[in-house]
Design a protein that fits this description.
heterodimer, A: 235 residues, alpha/beta, Rossmann fold, 6-stranded mixed beta sheet, 3-stranded antiparallel beta sheet, 7 helices, B: 573 residues, alpha+beta, 2 domains, 7-stranded mixed beta sheet, 46% helix, elongated
């Protein structure tokens, strides 16, 4: 595997206000991740792992520090460029699936493609292909409410994969699933990683994190001693 | 996001936010439907007024009536009026002191105008297609007001006696339904009535009624008279009159061949207009005949039981219509009520003698002749050059002539113009209410939908939607809901118009039949199609205005929505 560092965080701090309280969600975090690497971020609730993931996904801007993702400093972009960047570069998988309830599985997968300017016919074809690969070809026209948790998460993964992103970010992707489905999703994410897509997963799930090449542990907003030897010198 | 995608999202969301979307759609839909119905019907009314009323009153619109409050119209008013810009010509009108005027026949019926006015040739020519002047060789040209086109009809329903109970009288129409003697309007359009030759008669005796009315505290009983009773009444009258008059001479009216040259649609009175040069001929003939018919000097007070024709000499001859009457005839709608006043009606019986001329002591003057010069004009007709200036000329006349006159104030044209102005204002008010309700429902509901849809908007943002796309989505969504409401509302409105038009036409005709023509003199018969006009221009204008308003108003929730970040949305998990 090529060892290009495609994700670089340098002294990233995120502070936000919660009422009168100031909360430091991330405290001077530096990190780099190579292309195709699969990384699990672990940590207790409120440790800052989701904030880290959001910054990595260019969803949330850090209070200070620099972020470079695939050679782009996303927070320097205007809204249009940033949206395009998110759409083309990053795929998201959420704990609660975040599927649009009024769309079918197929349409949910089509949404990012259409937002990226793909024609409806092409988007449909692509979405079908991806859903087919994930074993959902018999669920194309089902609404989320007609799907099981595992199926919903597979649709969400299909949606993330549809635009062929370079990076997939998953936030507790198995957090809301039963054991059987956890295993299916873990297999699926592992297979994604094998395709050369950089994968960063926030999880409590030991079984899941075991499947990834590197584990990062975060607590109190600080990145702890890397639990994997691959994490050495981030500077 | 392209419009197709926005449409898809909006329609799909309708399924989820049924109640919320209904809060936008239902009021807009209802208001749209109401608006279509109201605007269409108001438009229909305006169109009907324009085509069926004002167009028919083209001639009438050229004339502004000036009436004196004190029944004197000084000569100088004529020259004052003539100096006003836009005034073409001015003519005085006189009321002829003649009674028992009848026109035989109009559409097969004898009609009896209450009053005879004179018109100068020039004013008459405004209404008439042929010269409005008298000549021996030709029938007298006459103009009838629409309100004069009424005849009496008896309908006893096979009974000889009918009790009209006070308790059962809710309205004037109930009275009309119940009394056996009815006035019926001739509703034929003017074109079917003009150029018809008729016979006009002046004077003569009132026909003895064929029934009596007995009033009790419960109501009035109408009772047919038997032929014996009728003969008795007739004989009593003849004997009573014959003491002083040649009964036959009085009985036979003076008749002339005449021709209806116009129907005036703008007047609220039952009137006949004759050429001014004809008036003297009538007056002369009537007074001559009465004088010839008179057997001896009589005390006129008791026999002058009626009529404008009664006159005193002290201030010159002028009509004294009410002062010496024992009985008056009031007309209420199409129903005639006979009201007795004074104490000595019993001593005069039911004798109505036209055109008595009294001196100031109340004695009849045997050898007087009256002519138009003895009368004072009551009304001035001001003919204007251009009907568009009607209002301006009316205002100028009011200013120039002062407070003693009323300028066209009671003209039906003014009422109709006021009515159409009111209709326009009503439409404007409706649009304003519509705009306000729309703004409230759109801002309220769309803000709510945005607030509840934060997560969804966050997902779109995470998947690559720009802020602009989100704004488009919200504005588009709002417009789609609004358009759906407009389209359904329009369809409902149109269906309602179709459903209602025949009912409205029917009701409108019933209203006209039942006395609306008391305020609207013109005889209009409505067809269903008259109420099927769609005011497409106004509806489209209103829709366009509302769409712009909605698009602008939707920017409020749209901007709110575009500020939602994916993180905001995810925090809500």
């Amino acid at each position: 595997m090529n060892s290009t560092k495609v994700i670089k965080l340098d002294s990233v701090t995120k502070v936000y206000k919660d009422g009168d309280r100031t909360v430091t969600a991330l405290d001077n975090v530096s990190l780099s991740i190579e292309q195709g690497e699969s990384v699990a971020i672990e940590g207790p609730s409120g440790s800052g792992k989701s904030t880290l993931l959001q910054i990595l996904g260019a969803l949330d801007e850090p209070t200070s520090g620099s972020v470079n993702i695939f050679g782009v400093e996303p927070f320097q972009l205007n809204d249009k460029e940033l949206s395009k960047f998110r759409n083309e570069t990053i795929g998201f998988v959420f704990q609660f699936f975040n599927l649009l309830p009024y769309y079918s599985a197929l349409e949910n997968v089509m949404v990012p493609l259409l937002l990226g300017g793909v024609s409806e016919t092409d988007a449909r074809e692509k979405a079908k292909t991806v859903l087919d690969e994930l074993g959902l070809s018999d669920r194309l026209n089902h609404r989320p409410s007609q799907l099981s948790g595992g199926q919903m998460q597979r649709v969400a993964i299909a949606r993330a994969l549809g635009t062929e992103p370079k990076l997939i970010l998953a936030d507790e992707p198995t957090g809301n699933l039963d054991k059987e489905n956890k295993a299916i999703i873990a297999d699926l994410l592992a297979s994604v990683s094998k395709k050369g897509i950089t994968l960063i997963v926030v999880t409590h799930d030991q079984l899941l994190s075991e499947r990834f090449g590197r584990k990062l542990r975060i607590d109190g907003g600080r990145l702890l001693q890397p639990s994997n030897e691959k994490v050495k010198d981030e500077s | 996001m392209n419009p197709k995608q926005i449409l898809k999202v909006s329609l799909r969301k309708m399924g989820i936010y049924k109640m919320r979307v209904a809060v936008i759609i239902v009021p807009v839909l209802v208001l749209t439907a109401i608006s279509v119905v109201v605007s269409s019907e108001l438009f229909s009314i305006r169109t009907v007024i324009r085509d069926k009323v004002l167009e028919k009153m083209a001639a009438e619109q050229q004339v502004i009536s000036v009436t004196a409050f004190d029944e004197e119209l000084p000569d100088e008013y004529k020259s004052k009026a003539e100096q006003i810009d836009g005034v073409k010509l001015v003519g005085f009108e006189y009321d002829l002191p003649v009674q028992q005027v009848a026109v035989d026949s109009v559409d097969g019926h004898i009609i009896k105008p209450y009053i005879v006015h004179t018109l100068t040739k020039k004013v008459g020519d405004v209404f008439s297609n042929e010269p409005f002047e008298y000549s021996d060789a030709n029938p007298v040209p006459i103009i009838l007001s629409r309100k004069a086109l009424v005849y009496q009809e008896e309908d006893w329903g096979g009974k000889d006696e009918i009790l009209v109970s006070f308790d059962s009288l809710g309205s004037i129409n109930d009275l009309k339904d119940q009394v056996p003697v009815k006035s019926v309007s001739i509703r034929k359009p003017s074109k079917d009535l003009v150029n018809k030759e008729v016979e006009v008669s002046f004077g003569g005796l009132y026909t003895n009624p064929s029934y009596t009315v007995i009033d009790t505290d419960k109501g009035s009983t109408y009772k047919k008279l038997s032929s014996e009773q009728l003969q008795h009444e007739q004989k009593a009258r003849e004997e009573s009159i014959s003491k002083y008059w040649d009964y036959q001479k009085l009985t036979n009216p003076i008749t002339f061949k005449a021709k209806i040259v116009a129907i005036r649609e703008d007047l609220m009175e039952s009137a006949m207009f004759v050429p001014q040069d004809f008036a003297d001929i009538v007056l002369n003939k009537i007074t001559t005949r009465e004088n010839e018919a008179r057997k001896s000097t009589i005390n006129g007070v008791y026999l002058a039981s009626d009529f404008i024709g009664s006159a005193t000499l002290d201030e010159g001859l002028k009509p004294t219509p009410l002062a010496v009457t024992n009985e008056q005839v009031f007309s209420l709608g199409e129903v005639s009520l006979f009201i007795a006043i004074g104490d000595d009606s019993s001593s005069t019986g039911k004798i109505f003698i036209p055109g008595l001329i009294l001196d100031d002591a109340g004695h009849a003057v045997a050898d007087e002749r009256i002519s138009l010069d003895d009368l004072s004009p009551l009304r001035m007709d001001v003919v204007i050059s251009d009907v568009k200036n009607r209002r301006q000329v009316s205002n100028d006349l009011s200013k120039a002539l002062g407070d003693n006159v009323s300028v066209g104030a009671f003209s039906a044209i003014s009422s109709i113009t006021m009515f159409t102005d009111f209709v326009n204002k009503l439409m404007d008010s409706l649009t304003i209410i519509f705009v306000i309700v729309t703004i409230i429902s759109v801002v309220g509901v769309m803000s709510k939908i945005v607030a509840e849809g934060e997560r969804e908007i966050g997902i779109f943002r995470a998947l690559g939607a720009t802020k602009m796309a989100i704004r488009f989505l919200i504005v588009g969504q709002t417009l789609i809901y609004f358009l759906i409401a407009l389209i359904i509302g329009d369809m409902l409105g149109a269906l309602s118009v179709f459903a209602l038009s025949s009912k409205i036409a029917h009701q409108a005709n019933a209203l006209i039949e039942r006395g609306l023509d008391y305020v609207l003199p013109i005889s209009v018969h409505f067809e269903t199609v008259d109420f099927l006009h769609f005011d497409i221009a106004t509806v489209l204008q209103q829709h366009l205005l509302l769409i712009v308003v909605v698009a602008l108003v939707a920017l409020i929730p749209a901007y709110r929505a575009s500020k939602i970040t994916p993180v905001d949305a995810m925090r809500r998990e």
